[in-house]
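--- STAGE predict ---
source: upstream dedup step, 1 unique chain passed
mode: sequence only
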Amino acid sequence: MPPLPGMLAGASGRLARLAPPLRRGLLVVLALNAVILGAYLWSRGGQRTVLSIEVTGDRYRVELDGKRLLPPPDDAASYVQGDLPSAGSISLSLSKGIPSLPDPQGIDSVVVRDPQGRVVFRDDFERLDESVWRVTSGSFAVEDGVLVAKSMDAPNQIDLQQPGWRDYEATITYRNGSSGDVWVRRSESGLIMVSLSLVVDFPGYVDVVNDNGEWAGREFIWRPEPRGEESLKSVVAMAVGAYPLLLLALGAGFGLAFSLAAAGLGVSRAAARLGIGRLARGRLFERAARLRVRVWAWPVLAAAAAAFGFAAALRLMLGYHFAVPQLPDEDSYLFQAKLFASGRLTGEIPPVREAFYHWLPNFLYEDGDRWSTFYPFGHPLTLAAGALFDAAWVMPPLVGAGSVAALYALGRRLYSPRVGGVAAVLLAGSPFFLMQSSNFMAHGTWTLFALLALLFAVSRERPLLFGALGGLCFGLALNTRTIEALVLAPFLGAVLLAGLRRRDGRVQSLKHFAAYGAAAEAMVIAMLLYNSAITGSPLTSPYQAMPTYEPILGFSNGHTLDNGLRNLEHQIAGLSALLDGWPAWLGLGMVILPFVLGTRKAWDYFCAAAAAALICLYVLYQYPGMYEGPRYLYHAVPFLLLLAARGADAAAT
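--- STAGE serialize ---
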């Protein structure tokens, strides 16, 4: 075998002799796969979270990843005092894992130390030792050195079969854990139970039962925050965890294609020797290889997908939601839609206003004897088209169908009819799409306006008309969910400015740019006029004028980067499960497929950057937003599905 330096030199020489375009393409493939491989290796195994519970005498302390949970960090006391049980062992309770989170999901190790720091017990779960642990409920298994809960029908609880200790510190290391309870000083009558949700933004708590079997109090843990770096590892693992499987599938596909080609060549040669002209020319294999869906079939398929999306969403709206709002936000939107349908901006407040409150605090903006929604007018205006006929419930499914059609048109414009058609089918079949198209929330409406704004930004055949329509749609998106529209604005601006750089058709591009900007500016003016009509100030929105108003973006009011990344982990887990009903092991693998194949198309990077910006925005949000799926991330779904369709198209090509 030649030495390694010689092999590398030979490979370098062969690479240098390749044609420049092929060489550049190969370098792109290698560079992108190096980045994806690095992300895969860094995030492999997902998240590790360390819970520490220290009990000494009649006091205890709880820490998560080195940060104190109880007593609260701003409390001067170092421990929580209580009527604690005097001594006892340890019990662990786990819920079955979430399929879309990285595996394995459970407990990596349990370590017990005495007050001097000496290890008095340790189990790294190389196996489940039944002489040490006793399963009291549910079932467990050990996977890759991690204790994993298996039962969904019963709580999964396991007890340490030792008398226990009085003063000790129990350290439990979780791997990709979603939630669980730890009991320390567990005896026949007493316990200290620490209950935490490690992914979902729910408060945790500590319950104490004393030696007499009496409940002795509860302390809440309002924001248990795992370390942000570990949450980010989980997010990256969900994004690129399918990378080895993609490589395996691509290798198998290439191998199959090569085998079929070789078989076809062999049959053709054999037929030539036998004088069978039809097979000799290989027409059968050529026809099979060139099998394509006719161009006219893709818009038909997209129309069928839109019709299916509308019918399925309408069925859910009527049969599951019963055509009524489920959240106070939806009530507020629908109330304003009915006001618009009746030709009014505000409504009269009834004499006993409290009797009409549907939430506390009220989800309507009150100004003297008038009230209205505190949300922007874009989504209520859309619902008002249905409210005119007492059928506001038909608008969300219609908006969803419009999004399917718009995604097809955008995919066709950016890539090809096939990519647009596949993306439209993926969207119409997405459980996430059906959730968002069968409720009265604004996320589907914003997504439709954003898709149309981008579609008209790249369409310049009729510059004044398409520019004006694009600016109008962007303005409606701005007046539906303002922050998300501002995040998308630089991407739209880049598309519009790119048209100005072209020498051919520059005058047309200038007209398009001017019309787009003028229409968008008109919608900004409409926003200011609406604010002025409702609050009396063009620069103060009803949302800002609410007595309960607090900024929802940024690291304040207890919101930290760690908490934002934990929320993002929860949302990405939901997105992986709901995006298109793909198997959990595939996750978001189809989305990264274009980059695994070394794409050089600018629109792929555009879609990836737009999706990433819209997703990462919610690290700054102070609310997790989990209802009908990770609804905040729905705005990025069209870009993700375009990438998935592009990956499928590129792999097939």
